[in-house]
Design goal:
With 308 residues, this protein is α/β, with parallel strands linked by helices. It contains twelve helices and eleven strands. The chain is elongated, with a radius of gyration of 24 Å. It binds ligand FVH.
Length: 308
């Protein structure tokens, strides 16, 4: 067996065929287990650790090696060390006693942007390289590229490139910037937009609730098509926020949309639906129109929420 050694990884070869880089994975919850299976299926030597050791059993049967401690997993790690734990506090607890010097840490644990930045500094102070990731997939999507799942990464770009092929095994890999907080920020931005969409769907289905003979599956098809068509508005908003001209390319202005809100609210009343999910957004629209910006699109509402 030949061995080609780089400062960061050891790749063995058998009969001239390079073997896959080894992966170390800490955390075998639903997501960690799905990640583990994808690397095993792709032929990566896999070392796993989990706080509750029994969860490693089935993976060991499938070819993984398990360690008794997280520190032990780090000690033997010759490739990327993936963290997929509950939250940032559990990452701190898990790595407390480990020697991180010279290790490549890739943290897929959900964190806030500030937690990710602090964790990156913390890891670097201990001699590790650090990349943060936000998973835009649920466990059944892992290892199935056709489902469109991906992971957002930010931080050490060279580290991302070094392990890119390995990272692309469970899901697509998208690098969103050198700031280690930006993967988490993108992750939360996407989830926040999704929350708004779910609020809209909830209101829409509440509106039709009294109509016993209405075809809900048919409505679902219409909703899917309509929301898909409207989602492209994100590009218009981004362009307006970049240029500072919130009237640029506006096809449906705030004055018109605010007037149309009256029909939305009156229909909610007719159908005995509480408009609480729509009201805060409509209040922002009315406020911006009252400020004299009725000819704008929605980008002007961003400033009303603060964050600048
Ligand atoms: N599952 C999902 O749909 C989402 C999709 C988007 C991304 N999230 C994030 O991924 C992280 C892990 O999620 P998970 O689904 O694997 O979560 P659980 O099944 O609850 O497993 C949690 C693991 O964390 C371990 N753990 C918890 N606390 C500690 C601690 N103090 N010290 C060490 N390990 C800890 C837990 O161990 P155990 O309970 O089995 O002993 C599990 O391995 C997460 O950030 C999601 O937001 C998933």
């Amino acid at each position: 067996m030949q061995t080609h050694t780089t400062p960061h990884a050891t790749f063995g070869t058998t009969s001239g065929t390079p073997s896959k880089p080894p992966v170390t994975l800490l955390g075998l919850g639903d997501m960690g287990t799905a990640l583990a299976r994808s690397w095993l299926a792709a032929g990566h030597p896999l070392t796993v650790w989990n706080r509750t050791p029994a969860k490693a059993g089935p993976l060991v049967d499938e070819g993984a090696r398990k360690t008794a401690t997280a520190a032990g997993a780090l000690e033997s790690a010759a490739g990327p060390v993936i963290l997929c734990l509950l939250d940032d506090a559990s990452v701190g607890e898990t790595l407390e006693a480990a020697d991180l010097h010279g290790k490549d840490l890739i943290n897929l644990t959900t964190s806030t942007p500030d937690q990710a930045r602090r964790r990156a500094r913390w890891a670097q102070e201990r001699g590790a390289r650090f990349l943060d990731g936000g998973i835009m997939a649920v466990p059944p999507m892992i290892g199935r590229p056709e489902t469109g799942g991906y992971v957002l990464y930010s931080g050490d770009h060279a580290l991302f490139e070094r392990h890119r092929e390995t990272l692309e095994v469970p899901a697509g890999a998208r690098f969103v910037g050198a700031d280690p907080g930006h993967a988490a920020l993108h992750d939360v931005a996407l989830l926040s937009a999704m929350t708004g969409m779910f609020a809209g769907l909830t209101h829409a289905f509440a509106l039709v609730a009294p109509e016993k003979d209405l075809d809900r599956a048919g409505l679902a098809t219409l909703l899917t098509e309509w929301l898909g068509a409207m989602a492209g508005a994100a590009h218009g908003m981004a362009a307006q926020l970049e240029s500072g001209d919130y009237t640029e390319g506006v096809t449906s202005n705030l004055a018109m949309m605010t007037a149309a809100n009256a029909a939305l609210l009156a229909t909610a009343q007719e159908q005995h639906v509480d408009p609480r999910l729509l009201a805060p957004y409509m209040e922002l629209m009315s406020r911006r129109v009252a400020q004299g910006y009725g000819d704008e699109g929605s980008a002007g509402l961003v400033g009303l929420l603060g964050g600048e």
